[in-house]
Amino acid sequence: MSYAAVTDLELRLGTQTVIELTNPKRRADSINTPVADAAIADATGIIDSYIGQRVSLPLDIVPALIKTLAIDLAVYYLKVKLGNTGNTDNATTKLYDDAIKHLERFAKGDTSLGLHIVEDNADDDVNQGSDHADISSEPRQFTRNKMGRLT
After folding, report:
1. pTM of the model as a whole
2. Maximum CA pair distance of the chain?
3. Which residues does the annotated region (Disordered) include (predicted)?
4. Measured between alpha carbons, how far is 26 from 4 in angstroms, rounded to an integer?
5. Angle at alpha carbon of residue 111, lines to 108 and 113, rounded to 5°
6. What stretches of the chain show up as alpha helix (H) in DSSP?
7. Angle, in degrees to the nearest 10, between helices 15-22 and 33-51
8. Which single residue of 62, 88, 117, 134 could bond 79 by disulfide (Cβ 3.0 to 4.6 Å)?
9. CA distance 136 to 143
10. Closest Cα partner for 89 from 98, 100, 76, 102?
11. Cβ-count burial of 30 within 10 angstroms (0-12 exposed, 13-18 middle, 19+ buried)?
12. Which long-range contacts (CB under 8 A, 24 or more apart) does 23-27 make?
């Protein structure tokens, strides 16, 4: 499951910019969707490599921050990996560096991404619970012997 879509890239950068980034060697009138999808897949893979130790994958719900990080990483990959080095600017590199730093902090447990954390309690002696209820009470006050013939 990808954390972003081509339409997310278009919303962030504009359609014309995405067309140019996904078609670096030629003029084109449309987005090269497989190239954009590959950059998004690369970004998703990087994110999973950092968050996979702390959360259960795949994510059921993608938090907004994860989507933003995926877009930032995908844009960087489109600009750098595909030979668009002339289009790489300091802002794009900074977004990439910031995204990686944020993921590293999450992997260390120093920050949150709004995700449910998987705890590894396999070595704990704590009872993790069960699917039945334990009911206890005081001994009966009114027994057949105490009530006599009223029962």
Report:
1. 0.73
2. 101
3. 126-151
4. 25
5. 110
6. 6-13, 15-22, 33-51, 64-80, 90-108, 144-147
7. 90
8. 88
9. 18
10. 76
11. exposed
12. 24/82, 24/83, 24/84, 25/83
Amino acid at 151: T
77, 40 in Cβ contact below 8 A?
no
The domain ranges of the chain are 6-108
Residue 148 token pair: 């006599």
Q: Return the closest-CA partner of residue 8 out of 86, 63, 50, 67.
A: 67
Residue 69 tokens, joined? 């990080």
Q: Quote the tokens at residue 38.
A: 């590959």
